Amino acid sequence: MKRTELIKATLADYEVVQNMARFYAYDMSRDCGQQLEGWEFPKNGLYECNDFKKYLEGNSNHAFLIKIDDELAGFLFVNKLEVMPEVDWNIGEFFIVAKFQRSGIGRTIAKRIFDQFPGEWSVGAIPQNTRALNFWRKIIVEYTHGKFHEVEKTSEQLKTAEHPDPYPMILLRFRTPQPTSGNRHATHKLILREPTLQDETAFLAMTQQSQDFHHPWVKAPLTHSEFIEYIQRCQQPNQKSFLVYSPENVIVGVFNISEIVFGCFQSAYLGFYVSKDYAGKGLMSDGLNLLLNKAFIDLSLHRLEANIQPTNSSSIWLVQRNGFRKEGFSPRYLKIDNEWRDHERWALTIEDWNEK
Q1: Does domain 191-355 have CATH number 3.40.1010.10?
Q2: CB atoms near residue 312 (< 10 Å)
Q3: Which of 8, 145, 281, 333 has the most crowded CB, counting CB atoms within 10 A?
Q4: What is the spatial distance between Cα 167 and Cα 170, in angstroms, rounded to a whole number?
């Protein structure tokens, strides 16, 4: 499980930041180098970048180093925009080194910084930097549930004494959702956490009440002994389970990741069920977003497979909506309620997840 850290940067980190900034400039040249003046390849073969010391000097700026398992992975700078005083926070610069790009790390860090600095936000990129714009649009749509708007600013509108000749920008504007919990796995209304013995009463109340609703798709634990067996399975190294809780401390549903295999495979199976009281309300889709972040970032999986009975249209809709693709059909695949039942195979890889 990879540990992702945002570490406050100071002037002592200035040399490290400027060294990384050369790679940042090189990265941006892929989108800007052939479209904008001033992005010609340096004659000495060495990219230069703006001086980022101002971000490290404090005031209204905040600088962070990004580390993955103690390895340097990038930087992130938060500032305020002089030309837009109504905005509380702005992403000044954001860079993930090539090794960790397209791994979901950027998505995790972006959402974490939004949570850390609540208020009115702007995130911008020059129009030619389509990779950055696509990245931010995807993240902000997920984070705000689509509640954002885009603003185009000309060079004249962005001009300041410090930046007399800026590029035009496309700015994405949004307000952070009202926090509902201190849990860092909360997304708007939901909290995702692993089950404990203390969850037994609430868990069994939900599964017993939903027993008819779950039939014939899944057989969830219904008794004390079945719950204990479930907890014991969760503690095995190749199993993970997560409860989805509402802010009212009610169980919305359950996600199980089973048969986890690392090495060259880095894959697992996904199962889930919802409380009948929350079925059809879209909350399990929010919960699945949280679960996928756990699977692909914290567990470092490459692929998740969900096997679903063909007539279970609600579950098929849930995975399809979250980017899973249908890979095949398995006749008489699982024995449920003493019957061998056909299943469709739906799967999602980290590459597909990063693109959705």
Answers
A1: no
A2: 16
A3: 333
A4: 10
* Mean pLDDT, all residues of the chain: 87
Q: What is the C-alpha to C-alpha distance for residues 227 and 238, in angstroms, rounded to an integer? A: 18
Closest by alpha carbon to 214, among 153, 265, 276?
Answer: 276
Which two tokens mark 4?
A: 């992702």
Find the distance separating the first CA and the last CA of the chain, reported in whole Å.
23
Distance CA 295, CA 137 (A): 22
Contact 176, 115 (CB under 8 A): yes
Q: Tell me which residue has tokens 């899944």.
A: 218
User: Within 10 A of 98 (CB to CB), how many other CB atoms are there?
Assistant: 10
More confident residue, 148 or 58: 148
**CB atoms < 10 A from the CB of 29, how many?**
16
pLDDT 10s digits, 63-92: 999 999 889 999 999 998 878 888 999 999
Question: What's CA 225's distance to the chain center, in Å?
Answer: 35
Q: What is the pTM of this model?
A: 0.53
* Amino acid sitting at position 335: K
Q: Which amino acid is at 206?
A: M
Give CATH 3.40.630.30 domain extents, the chain.
4-175, 191-355
Q: Which CATH superfamily is domain 4-175 in?
A: Gcn5-related N-acetyltransferase (GNAT) (3.40.630.30)
- Encode pLDDT of 137-195 as tens digits: 988 888 888 888 998 999 898 888 877 888 888 999 999 876 443 333 444 468 899 99
Torsion region of 241: left, alpha or beta (phi above 0 gives left; psi -120 to 50 gives alpha): beta
